[in-house]
């Protein structure tokens, strides 16, 4: 589930539903959101921004920029993503 911060952030592009239906807009929204809040996420996890993983970004998306990356509440989002999109080695 996306946070209110994420939804508000993406609305500035056009409107959330309109943006979600457009691959370019949705991709740009995600890139911009993660560029803006990724460093904060990295700081929460005592990492450098380049060390963030897919799990970290999913947790940021789910929990928001304030404490989403470090909150145990966002671990379920990562578990659900792994269940839906298994990574093949």
UniProtKB/TrEMBL annotation:
The keyword Hydrolase applies. PROSITE patterns: LYSOZYME_I. One of its GO terms (biological process) is defense response to bacterium. It catalyses: Hydrolysis of (1->4)-beta-linkages between N-acetylmuramic acid and N-acetyl-D-glucosamine residues in a peptidoglycan and between N-acetyl-D-glucosamine residues in chitodextrins. Disulfide bonds join 19-25. Keywords: Antimicrobial, Bacteriolytic enzyme, Disulfide bond, Glycosidase, Hydrolase. This is lysozyme.
């Amino acid at each position: 589930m996306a946070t209110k911060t994420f939804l508000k952030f993406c609305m500035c592009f056009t409107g959330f539903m309109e943006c979600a239906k457009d691959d370019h807009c949705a991709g740009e929204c995600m890139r911009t959101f993660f560029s803006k809040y990724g460093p904060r996420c990295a700081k929460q996890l005592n990492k450098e921004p380049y060390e963030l993983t897919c799990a970290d970004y999913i947790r940021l998306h789910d929990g928001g920029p304030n404490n989403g990356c470090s909150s145990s509440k966002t671990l379920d989002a990562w578990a659900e993503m792994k269940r839906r999109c298994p990574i093949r080695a």
